[in-house]
Amino acid sequence: MARSVVARKQNIKCRTKVKTGCTTCRIRKIKCDENKPFCEKCVKTGRTCDGYETPFRFSTSQPINSAHAGGIKSDVGLQPIQPTVIKITPQDIDLLNRYFSIKTLFDVKLGCDEEAKQVLQASLTDPPIRHAVLSLRALREGLETSGDGPASIAQQTPSYHYGLQQYSMALGGLASNLSFPGSNGLKSALLCCQIFISIEQLQKDYAAMAQHIIRGLRIMHEYRARPYFVAANKLVPAHHNQLPFLDVFIIKLFAAPCKFADPPATADVSGATSPGGLISPHQQPVESRDLRTIAPDMRTELTRIAASTLEFLGKVSQVESVGIALRLLSEKVALLDSLESWLINLELVQMETRSPSPEPISVSFLRFFHLILKIVLLGALDASRDLDVELRTESDRLQGVAKNVGERVRAYITCRGTNSGRGERSILR
């Protein structure tokens, strides 16, 4: 009997010294089998395996290609970090900043460091955000490892399955949190929205991407993330002034440099958050090249309006007096007029090309961007009932454009797959 008690004490003592393995096993203080991307011990017991080390720097069987990781070193050899002392590093922030958009595969700088830091800090205590971050990394690693090949190949990787599992858990956890939305739940929803947008863009599901954009912007508007007018001269402070600015994040993604604006056009399908059109230079129709020649500054002008919109939103967030707010309303009208003029010019350009074929996908993405800017601006400083109707109308248009783009992207991928022997370029080349 005494011997049995001693054996149990020795067993407990050993269990408290677990220093390796996944986060879940370390918290449970049991030996982990350290299988990647998630350990068998967690899987067999029906538990969620939260990966290895920090919520972002987990290990998978698909390591990041150093050529695409911006020089970030592998996690191999790093000392394990206990959950109670996890610290977000600059490398973590830089990596998530890269993973927000496929554009970074072409060394494009997003300028979303602050957004990445905010997401990672929240992921330490918010399970839905943590699952979303893990999903984004796994899916991005799968893309960088397998390339932009047929979906059947990408879907066979452990990273892909793990990414979808984590995405599903993030969606489920977020839905539960939003059953009784408070400040923390709303913050979680908007930060998750940032990652969901990146995930759907990565999977080229632009209709789902648009849904996340619409729902996130609707949350910001309904819960008044910035000061707003309730009457002609009555300015009300923001109801939730600590909410993440999802609109700023989205504009940064779309406004970052796009290589389809610089001839010759590249042949990738990343669209709104990537640097290429959908047709290679050798396949590109004459009408598409003519449109680029006639209107080389269409994207440049839209990006300029986007930069002015970001400045405007920054002023709205800080506004305190009615006088300043009224001047900002005039600035808002001017920006909306600029967007309307841009759209008119685009239609005139397309009439000049007289092309019987559908417009280039790159132009459809510009329409997508244009509608986002319009929705963001319409909601600024305004809380009228009439506005809700207009926002729903523009959101429906955005959803329609996104659906059309998604269908054409899928058709292109299918066509490229059947003609793979003709030398089309991969998105990763």
TrEMBL record:
Task: Indicate the secretion signal residues.
Answer: none
Any keyword Cell inner membrane? no
Q: Keyword annotations for this protein?
A: DNA-binding, Metal-binding, Nucleus, Transcription, Transcription regulation, Zinc
Q: Which domain of life is it from?
A: Eukaryota
* Gene3D superfamilies reported for this sequence: Zn(2)-C6 fungal-type DNA-binding domain
Keyword Thylakoid listed: no
SUPFAM superfamilies xref list: Zn2/Cys6 DNA-binding domain
Which parts of the sequence belong to the Zn(2)-C6 fungal-type domain? 21-49
- What's the short name of a Pfam family annotated to this entry? Zn_clus
**Single GO molecular-function term?**
DNA binding
| PANTHER family tied to this protein | ASPERCRYPTIN BIOSYNTHESIS CLUSTER-SPECIFIC TRANSCRIPTION REGULATOR ATNN-RELATED, TRANSCRIPTIONAL REGULATORY PROTEIN MOC3
Q: What is this protein called?
A: Zn(2)-C6 fungal-type domain-containing protein
The lineage, from the top, is:
Eukaryota, Fungi, Dikarya, Ascomycota, Pezizomycotina
